[in-house]
Amino acid sequence: MKKHNIIVALLFTLLAGMTSCGDNFDVSDKYNGVLSFSTPGYSLVETYNVGDSHTEKIYFQRGGLNFTPSTINLYIDESLVDSMNIAAGTNYKLMPQEYYTIENTSIKIDNEERLIEGAITVDPTKLLELNGGKYGILDYVVPIRISTEGMQVVSDKNTLILGFSVDNVTAVETSHTLHMQ
Questions:
Q1: Using an 8 Å Cβ cutoff, are 71 and 149 in contact?
Q2: What pLDDT is stored for residue 66 in this prediction?
Q3: Residue 91 contacts by C-beta under 8 Å, 6 or more apart in sequence?
Q4: Which residues, given as ranges, of the chain have pLDDT below 50?
Q5: What is the pTM of this model?
Q6: Residues ≥6 apart with Cβ < 8 Å to 48
Q7: CB–CB of 101/127 below 8 Å?
Q8: Does the N terminus or the C terminus of the chain have fewer Cβ atoms within 10 A?
């Protein structure tokens, strides 16, 4: 009898599963596409003064089921520096524009990519000069906010503050092996 009840229960579950899913299950109007920074908030970028510029990748992500061709617009929002200083008790300053380059301030999305890449480039030598020739100083930040044309932006994931620090590269020789620190 117990075996019979188990078989009936399994058949009932199978039958219920087959009949509950129809071909007309459409939720596309409920999950529009959205865009945001992949890692919003604050991020420390450590660079090294080795004579080359440093390019830091910035990633955006797309969510939702529906795709609409869109444009992500990046712009500097100085008010983010003030907000961060008040909230965290810091004294960061806006990095002057001549010390960095945002490679593309308007990124078009014409396909259904989920991860979109952008970039910002700084020159560690110039940044070191801005910091009075001192290594490991973190006084300047680049506050980026995004807006979009097309898909909506996720309101609590639309800002990124990048803090850049220049560190010194030293070489140490031990047992005939050169180690970089």
A1: yes
A2: 84
A3: 85, 139
A4: none
A5: 0.77
A6: 54, 124, 166, 167, 168, 169
A7: no
A8: N
